[in-house]
Amino acid sequence: MATVLLDGIKKSFGSVDVIHGVSLDIAQGEFVALVGPSGCGKSTLLRMIAGLEDPTAGAISIGGTVVNDLLPKDRDIAMVFQSYALYPHMTVRENMSFALELEKRPKPDIDKAVNEASSILGLNDFLDRRPKALSGGQRQRVAMGRAIVRNPEVFLFDEPLSNLDAKLRTVMRKEVKRLHQRLKTTSIYVTHDQTEAMTMADRIVVMNAGRIEQAGTPLQLYNRPENLFVAGFIGAPQMNMLQGRVTTTEGQTVLAHADVTLGLPDDVALDEGQEVVLGIRPEHLSLDPQGVLRAVVEVVEPMGIETHVTCMLGHTELRLIAAPDTDAAPGQHIRLAYDTSAVHIFDQATGNRVASMAAI
């Protein structure tokens, strides 16, 4: 296990800047997920840690050693790619042992490493098969096994589950997390799927346009997003956003939205006339005949354990999570209540979270 330190990492391709001074400290044994939309720079950052790309500026340290000038094979890392990249003419055993054979390890050591990895990943019955005789999930296990046998200081995962179907992705998420809990190797995992990041990582780093928007535990990002980008990216269904102007009505601070007036929490520092965005998670909206929000149901999606309801508040779309037996139907007029203590408030101009009174 080793720490990974990124200090002011920049990357340019010609005149195009894609990474803008990223600094990040990853602790020994930590599982960190890099998430963000396509093109945000997360895979480029991972490739620089692996040594497959050179940073334009900044330093990368692994285990306290700056590795900018080291070849990938000298960095003591192992990488699992989106494509399985298995040798089709080799058996599972041969695929897993190939890197160790290139290093001219003693055969007993190679056999021991392969057998231990295959036991961890449940591949003992497939060691003599070739990749074409394996399912997608089994091939991905072989790719992970090939990384495990090297016993690296750091595991790097580049969207390893994106080629799998939805059910198998769920299974493999659990397998990767179980693997990390067993090996406790420092791991950096790139994904565009925030559900993967939320369920697997100790800490999530949200990237956007080559910069880190916020880093924290899954619950920190979910419960206290620092800006509108993080608030909209983390969470499914997505957070509801209502734009409006802060005003005072009958001595109470409220949000004047185009279609409704909404009460605001008392512990947030707001200025009269300030343009803000009110964020409400779908689970903090509820069907209530006395609710202040009057909406029209558009789509109802039964999920078994819950029902997702999409409705329109004037021209603003709202999503809520309702009980599985809800009788909401498209075209129905409904009223909604919301939990004032659970709302998030962001400044429209900057996109940043508005500080609470206690933080001032």
TrEMBL record:
PROSITE patterns in the record: ABC_TRANSPORTER_1, ABC_TRANSPORTER_2
Any Pfam family matching the protein: OB_MalK
Protein name: Carbohydrate ABC transporter ATP-binding protein (CUT1 family)
Domain ABC transporter: 4-234
Similarity remark: Belongs to the ABC transporter superfamily.
GO biological process, one term: carbohydrate transport
Cited PANTHER family: MALTODEXTRIN IMPORT ATP-BINDING PROTEIN MSMX (PTHR43875), OSMOPROTECTIVE COMPOUNDS UPTAKE ATP-BINDING PROTEIN GGTA (PTHR43875:SF1)
Recorded GO MF terms: ABC-type transporter activity; ATP binding; ATP hydrolysis activity
Organism name: Yoonia maricola
Classification via NCBIfam families: PRK11650.1
One Gene Ontology cellular component: ATP-binding cassette (ABC) transporter complex, substrate-binding subunit-containing
Database matches in InterPro entries: AAA+_ATPase, ABC_transporter-like_ATP-bd, ABC_transporter-like_CS, ABC_transpr_MalK-like, ABC_transpr_MalK/UgpC-like, Mo/tungstate-bd_C_term_dom, NA-bd_OB-fold, OB_MalK-like
Domain of life where this protein originates: Bacteria
UniProt keywords, alphabetically: ATP-binding, Nucleotide-binding, Transport
Entry-linked CDD domains: ABC_MalK_N (cd03301)
